[in-house]
Amino acid sequence: xxxxxxxxxxxxxxxxxxxxxxxxxxxxxxxxxxxxxxxxxxxxxxxxxxxxxxxxxxxxxxxxxxxxxxxxxxxxxxxxxxxxxxxxxxxxxxxxxxxxxxxxxxxxxxxxxxxxxxxxxxxxxxxxxxxxxxxxxxxxxxxxxxxxxxxxxxxxxxxxxxxxxxxxxxxxxxxxxxxxxxxxxxxxxxxxxxxxxxxxxxxxxxxxxxxxxxxxxxxxxxxxxxxxxxxxxxxxxxxxxxxxxxxxxxxxxxxxxxxxxxxxxxxxxxxxxxxxxxxxxxxxxxxxxxxxxxxxxxxxxxxxxxxxxxxxxxxxxxxxxxxxxxxxxxxxxxxxxxxxxxxxxxxxxxxxxxxxxxxxxxxxxxxxxxxxxxxxxxxxxxxxxxxxxxxxxxxxxxxxxxxxxxxxxxxx
Length: 412
Description:
single chain; alpha/beta; 3-stranded antiparallel β-sheet; 15 helices
């Protein structure tokens, strides 16, 4: 019986909150019970050995129920399994090439003429290295993954060797009848991008005619039997007013809505005059009201980038996630290691430069947050903590109201 190594512990007064950082599930209980539990773990006691040592039946019944619930939440486990080199999900950026020129693209993908970094055979070797890490899910992304002339061959290759879930992130414009059939057979899910709610609003960011192409792609996929379809919109200053209408559109299309945060990266830096502008005809619209999350639905930070998930860029560089595609967080190049799994089994996280950098933006380890009793609820993503660290004024504006609200909601 141990506390799983992916669990974060927060303390406040005489209580403890334990957060499963893989699922976001959390439990609050007394500091005294936590100390008893940790002492038992330190001594190597099983639950059966611990319970008879407690004072009376009431204490034994309480501790037994607490341990049961902690087990159900994945916080207490029988032993920390050695899963080094294994990941829940790995994203593979198959190409930087793209057939669109979206104004907010964070990777500035646009050209269809640039040569791929890896040919078909080399990409298959990369896929084999990914599969060796036993991920539960592999996500194919880009650029535009379907822009690769060998996309169908690579998808067939992956699906023939991988038993887990396969997902694709695409702009949807290259999905015809034949491609829809293939995707519906091979994928568990697909995420299409739509940064608007009609031709008018979508064309500002993605170009003319894209809206109709994406709607058609959704219908083709559904006709071929793929039901797990999500439609995403990046909430730029320009289209944030359409969030309600976007949710209504997704409902009518019978797809899951995904609202993504806007980041001034890549091409977005050069297009802020357009992305930040709200046309006069839309000025009467109001952004949807953001309601507080009920405490029973509050989840802790589930980011395990670099530990339970990976992002592999088009040139083979490995990062914790797409948001941290920066030199400080580069782990290795998949093309340079014979086995990705073996690499992570031998890496020393305490001395590796990427993981040292990663620890500085972990909500539980960052200098600004390590002593905060709500740190694991305040930052859903370390990348946003990184952005706040670079802007002290914004950090204060975010921290003070968030902490007041979360202290009440989490600790009562």
